[in-house]
Amino acid sequence: MAEILLEHVGKTYPGGTQAVSDVSLSVADGEFIVLVGPSGCGKSTLLRMVAGLEDISAGTVTIGGRVVNRLEPAERDIAMVFQNYALYPHMTVRENMSWGLKNRRIPKDEIAARVEEAARMLELHPYLDRKPRALSGGQRQRVAMGRAIVRQPAAFLFDEPLSNLDAKLRVTMRGEILKLQKRLGTTALYVTHDQLEAMTLADRLVVLNGGQIEQVGRPLEVYHRPASTFVAAFIGAPAMNLLDARIEAGHLRLAGVDLGRVEGEARAVTLGIRAEDLQLLQSGGLPFRIDVIEELGAGRVVHGFVEDQPLCVSLPSGAELPAQLHLGVAPEALHLFDAITGKRLPQSVHRSAKVRA
Amino acid sequence: MTASPVVPSPFLRLRQWWTRPSAHPAKVAQFDRPLAPWLFVAPQLLIVAIFFYWPSVQAVTSSFYLEDPFGFGAAFVGLDNYREALSSTEYRNIAGFTALFAATVTALSLGLGLLLAVKADAVMRGAGAYKTALISVYAIAPPVVGLIGMMMFDMHIGPFTKAAALFGWEMRVGIDYRDTAVALITVAVWKQIPYNFIFFLSGLQAVPSSVREAALIDARSGWRRFRDVTLPLLAPTGFFLLVINITYALFDTFGIIDVMVKDKPANNPITLVYKVYLDGFKGNDIGGSSAQSVILMVVVAALTVAQFRLIERRVHYG
Amino acid sequence: MQRFRPFDHLILLLGAAFLVTPVVMAFMSSTHAATEIHMNGLFLSPGGEGMATYEKVLTQKGGFTGTVTGARMVMNSTILGLGFALGKVVVSMLAAYGLVYFRFRFATPIFWMIFTTLLLPLEVRIMPSYQVMSQLHALNTYWGLIIPLLASATGTFYFRQFFKSVPDELLEAARIDGAGPVRFFLGVLVPLSRPMMAAIFIIMFVYGWNQYLWPMLMTTDERFFTLMRGIKTILQVWIGSQIPDYNEAFALAVLAMLPPLGVVLAFQRLFIKGLTESDK
Q: Could you report the per-residue pLDDT of A298-317, keeping only the tens digit for each?
């Protein structure tokens, strides 16, 4: 068990490409950290630098109080689960799990006991003497987990471990990974591009963009207070609506509608509204023109336009909708971002006196 | 905490220079050890140095010398050996035959190999048996092929000779230049068909069934489907085989020729490589033979470079 | 959808007949007496002289000096075929491993040094190669027969292509599992490469067994003659004789083609896979 410390970590490839720059992060012992971002954001590179599979160009990585920059992967006391599992195809499940321990000269009965324990936890007993190719995707995934568990490492590193599974299995395995990690209390770094996976697994989320950290925080914190338009658009489904709005004379205006009081001089802002924060009004509010309706069974997502800006709204299923709707939103649910930098603005929106009356 | 960039020590810097990845690393994940790779490539490197580079350099050097047939020293003659080779009528005739031989053998064995592969791919019943039969000849060595071919074209007992006689063609293989050429080409094609068949068949079977089905829907005529869809997809295999076949016709037919012309090249057709051998080992003209070797080297090197280029460009289904 | 296609079958039957008939004729004729062949031509049916002919070819001391039997030539061809195949697999696998799995400065020049050998077949540098071998006193030795033939990068090329197709994550997982270069090679890569090794071994065995020009030059001592060399000798003895020993020549040819033929047909699938995958 150990904490992991990243200090100003950077990665520059020989060609000069900057994959990761100036990432600092402190992971507490036993914490489950998810690195999330679109492809090419540097999340995998960061994880591989912690694992020792990529050279560290700048900064230091500390695992359990040891600087590991110059250590071989095997010396870093970590275990990794790969996206394609990377099981040794010519070895049985048992051999796959015990090979790393054998290389470490761990006594035979100790190896047997650890494999036994891991097999019990992952319900792998019936498959111990099979080769990976005789297993299903989910079973292979379990073996890859088992190989990590038997090592009893200071930290687990997961590199998109569920991406090769079908949607249903992904949900099951997600739960299992979380249960196991909590039970073992091992620090975990987990890379994914799937924001739902990130939300459900993480103690803390690290959202990466262009090799830099956009935001670090607990999942709900990130969801409710995204630090930038990037995070706002990336976390949550459907994605947060981002609209061009203006602050004029102390009021926030969108499509000519006053949405509330706000401090600050007149300027253009980007306004973020989650689809589920919008409600139907009988009249007034934002005029909304329906384009497409996605029926999800439990609810519906309505896509349309406010003036010329696209907007989507989550509504309960029910009666047929007219082509024109009137939408309202609570001022507390409005997010303001700088129109140019995309960073979250400090101001919050308050109910206008007129509306309150 | 402040940023603490790792300052490389002189040793580290040396190590980085030594282990600097090549421009196009074969893999993303590699070991980073200074000594180990050398130990692994050492045997191959040693063999290549002694048995490839040393003789190749010697071939080039001795092509500039005229060696005394009795072994008393050698005189530097510059490009004389080349000039002599290229200007001799005999050399030109042999080069002409070699070009004709290579072109005919390549065209026929590629064409027949493709035809048989397409047919073997089309039939369901008996495909395995045909395949086995068509592949078998591949394993037979050129001199054995030469021996069998010689018997087939034997003036007294050869079935081919008898068959030709039915059409009033009296074949005198080993004596008549043209008849021998026909026999050599037939035998060389016979030996090479299986190789082309194997590659074309596996190329055909690599065409995804979805593409075949799409073509089936889009084109009514089988010939059109073959010409517009199958053939372009086979083109990379075809280019690869083209160079292999030319190389085969130039070099690997040595055994066939040696057996079939029975050391009596006087009025029989031979190829350039056979002449290199004759001049070097029978004629003791080391300088001339080396000059001819170097000419051949250039031809083959050009061919192989062309092949590498083509393979690099293999985009579809490569 | 599939219909019976008589025309396709006709072409295939003709092609198969063209390729296979000469081989069958060689085999059948080897079981007839030389005089019979001389009078009636080649045969497509078995004769009664087979046992005697093969016994004679295998045991009778032949050649110019009368020191070599067919059995000895079979042994020499086997040594050449197996030795060459084994050497090829070991040497080229090690070299490909060094080239693919290590980051080192001279990887590119070494790659080119090794792969240039693909440019020039032995035939074009046969004369100087012979001279080098005679300077090394390697004429009439088994190693002199085998090792220079290893100086071509075909095997290395095959293995390099194969190693490149092995997923990177396997090496990464192995490194995290504490494996160094040797342990990864022996513990993961060699077991993974088994089918590839087998395929290359078969291809190279056939290649080595079938060598003609090099053994012809390298062996003047008849104790080192291979079957291919023997075929040349038996034909040289013929010249001037009344009735050539057709049957013995055919028997020798059959002996020379049977092992490679057997291996290729027995391991057809593996053989084709190894052969065709190398062109990628």
A: 899 999 999 899 999 999 98
Give the Cα separation of B73 and A19 in Å (integer). Answer: 65
CB A68 within 8 A of CB A61: yes
Quick: pLDDT tens for C187-237: 999 999 998 899 899 989 999 999 999 998 888 888 899 999 888 888 776
Tokens of C235: 């034909």
Q: Which residues of B touch C124 (CB under 8 A)?
A: 59, 251, 273, 276, 293, 296-297, 300
**In the numeric block, which tokens belong to residue C95?**
């070299």
CATH superfamily, with its number, for domain B102-271 = MetI-like (1.10.3720.10)
Check: pTM over 0.90? Answer yes or no.
no
Backbone angles phi, psi at C79, to 5 degrees: -60, -45
Per CB-CB distance under 8 Å, the chain B contacts of A69 are: 6
Residue A60 contacts B, CB cutoff 8 Å: yes
- Average pLDDT (B226-246) is 85
Last residue of a domain, one of A176, A207, A234: A234
Nearest beta carbon to residue C192 from set A85, A89, A104: A89
Cβ distance A165 to A145 under 8 Å? no
Report residue A49 as tokens. 């630098």
Q: Which has more pLDDT, B61 or C82?
A: C82
Domains with residue ranges and CATH for chain C: 6-277 (1.10.3720.10)
The CATH code of the domain that includes A308 is: 2.40.50.140
Give the pLDDT band (50/70/90) at residue B4: very low
- A185 shares its domain with A38: yes
Range 173-192 of C in CB contact (< 8 A) with A: 173-179, 183, 187-188, 191-192
> Does C156 contact B at CB distance below 8 Å?
yes
CB-CB: which of C170, C178, C191 is closest to A74? Answer: C178
Residue A151 structure tokens: 């090592």
Mean of the per-residue pLDDT values of chain B: 83
